[in-house]
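Lab meeting minutes (informal)
Scribe: AK
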Amino acid sequence: MEQISGPPAKSGTIFYQTPRSHPWRPTMGYEAVEVTPLHEQPITNQLVASSYSPSIMCSDPVTFPNLVTGFERNPQHAARSALYTRYTPNEWTTSNVSTYADADKNRNYSEKVRSEAVRLMRETDEKTSQGQRDAARRLGERITDITFWRNELTTELEKLIAESAQLTDSKRNVQKSLQDLEPPLHIAQECLYHRESRKGIELVHDHVEKSLLVEVDNLRSCQEKLSQLLAKITRQLADCRAAQHSLEDDISHKESALGIDSICHQLNNYSRGINYYGGIEKYDPTVSTPGTWSGSSSTRINNSHSERSKSCQLRSDADSLINAVATSVWDCWSNTNNAFNNRASEMLEAKSKMQLHLHKTQQEIFDVEKHIELLRKAINDKSNPMKVAHTRLEARAHRPGIEMCRDNAHLRLVEEVCTIQDSIATLHRKLQEAEAQHQQLLRTKSQLESNLKQKVDALFIDREKCMGLRRSFPVNNTIKY
């Protein structure tokens, strides 16, 4: 609130001089109103007649003396008053001439004022019309500018919405690819778990296991890359949505401004709804200039274009990464399957050789058993000759006297007994060796059978369990291979 005019307003010990006479009057929203005083009316006897006097007054109303009434009261005073209140003829004539001159002067001045007023009215009408036409032209230019930027913003908004839709499709493809990597990873881990159940020497760190570990590492690496790309796409979609909101907000504001300016452009002197708004020309609600206004829209369009470029690059990266992941996963899958096939062939060959050796070992065990029986029979066959020799020696020990001669027969019998004993000892050693070898052959047979069973189990794990899971590539058409 601002003081309009009047004496300075005192606030504490400080005086403030204001150009307004009324300190309570606000600056805006009010118009100056000229107060016209009433016409002066002389007080006459009629205004103080008895009919206008209050009923409680007990005295007569006051009357002013004139020439007639004064003569009745005081003739001298009335004569003196008449003498002093009368004019001379010269004065009367001079007054008339002066009145005529004043009337001519006033008429001339009035005619001049009227001519100047007509000229001023024509000038103000022309100036007002010209200003109204210029304002309408400027409004038309403003409408053209707003329409241009609105169309530019609308076109950019449509492109941004289409790009966001394509980026959303790419996001779905990345999510689908990320989900499609779960089955191969699960299968590879299952294969590793199944192969852990191998026994003995078959629990080997072979090329199949290396391929499975490489495949698991590759799948996890691909999942990490796809997850990072998915996070980037999510952030980019949020940025695109922010740019879209900015464009939509600017378009909405321009639509409102375009409607207001169109209505203003169509207003004329005979339109309905026009009115006075005191002090509106002093109110400045603007927050921008034409440069900053167009610069704001241009900045939003450039920001949207930048987001569209980033989105397009992300879509290209997503397609490239999906194809690279598909190729990498398929290569690891194929390498692992080939390793499984090669390992199965090696185990089949080893199994065949193991079965051949087992058959030969069984045949050798059979031959050794027969040989042991022959050795035992040979040892048993030496008993009778030993008995004969012992009997002969025992019988010859009963010869009488000098007949107990160490003759050749006695020497030969002793030699025969020693020879038979040596033969029996040699046969026993051979029998022990044969029995030991028989036990070794049995252990070999058991080992071969155990190894054969382990190979059969390992072959079953690789061919039936693992390759049964890996017969088909568990990825649909999202990943092209």
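Next up, CB showed the second protein from the same session:
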Amino acid sequence: MATISKLSNPCLNYSSSTSFGIRSSSSAPKFFIDLRTSNSNSNSNRLSGSRLSFVINPSNRGSLCIKCSQADGNGSSVKRTTLHDLYERQGQSPWYDNLCRPVTDLIPLIESGVRGVTSNPAIFQKAISTSNSYNDQFRELVQAGKDIDSVYWELVVKDIQDACKLFETIYDKTDGGDGYVSVEVSPILADDTEGTVEDAKWLHKKVERSNVYIKIPATAPCIPSIKEVISLGISVNVTLIFSLARYEAVIDAYLDGLEASGLSDLSRVTSVASFFVSRVDTLVDKMLEKIGTPEALDLRGKAANAQAALAYKLYQKKFSGPRWEALVKKGAKKQRLLWASTSVKNPAYPDTLYVDPLIGPDTVSTMPDQALQAFIDHGSVARTIDSNVSEAEGIYSALEKLGIDWGFVGSQLELEGVDSFKKAFDSLIDSLQEKANTLKLVSL
């Protein structure tokens, strides 16, 4: 039986939209349909029967946040959401930006149209430190004499392997086009070229799943790492991209890696480039508010999507022409653009601001809970990423004229992103060590 639970962050409705502008919003309590079966002992957690039934708590009032359940010709329940439409009609793959135990919680999301999963050190820090689901494995590892770093990676790798298994069918059906699960190298290696390469090789071998993406940050020292890892035939999710200049360097590293691989069949070496969006507006908006002119204030909330549209234009340019066509003959696949950081940081903005305007073919949108629920509820499925490139170029140039230094924005956000992941990693290691010390004392 499907159940409905109240969202902690209600979805927002909005009206009168433009490609890159800010849409007015109004909030109302919403509900999220939990597509898992109510039987907690069920391994599959799959829905069955000819129709969905709903259990509604009379104390909860509001509209539903997932539109689904259409019967197929055989009378069984087929859940249709905007995520299915996004992929089937526009060629964009919706991924989920979160991972925790039990990993089987991903099953209803997969049924709702999610086609991949991304993780990062901050996600694992939250998952492991707030859940009891890791306790048994943690205890076994500590009692086996494992050091804390090893314990951390054993916990992470198990989640990644289990998630890869769930997405294996999608990976197989799309011939390696989708169904990936991403896991990041140690964040402390963000400035270590060789260390990143070795960590990526170790992590890839440790997970040992064809549909795993090894995440490598797009820091300057790691650009050569990306080329090297790709040349070894390891698929990569390049993360923490905040500027057009760095994005072009990432594309070149991918192309260089493919050319240096020496492989006759490049079809199994794939990559995504994770271009971050909402954090761009968070920083640029502060800069615009400091400038304070009407022109500056009018550009708030527009920088991120404008830069993203130009990134897509660059993507189209780089993955065309003689150099790319030569790689295609060997089976090479485009390094898809992935929109990351799609949750809205400013509550005054509509909750699908970093999803609706960034829809285009051969791209990925990875969404955390808030953005995913909002898009399923009231997202618009239409090709928007290149619907008004001239407007994006105008916004980008207008911001430059106001003194916004895009190079500074990219560098600052990269520093903040790397620092955030390092702090999350260090915090988790410290808490695990403390927990291990307590466990050892109890065992004495």
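CB comment: The radius of gyration is 22 Å.
No objections, moving on.
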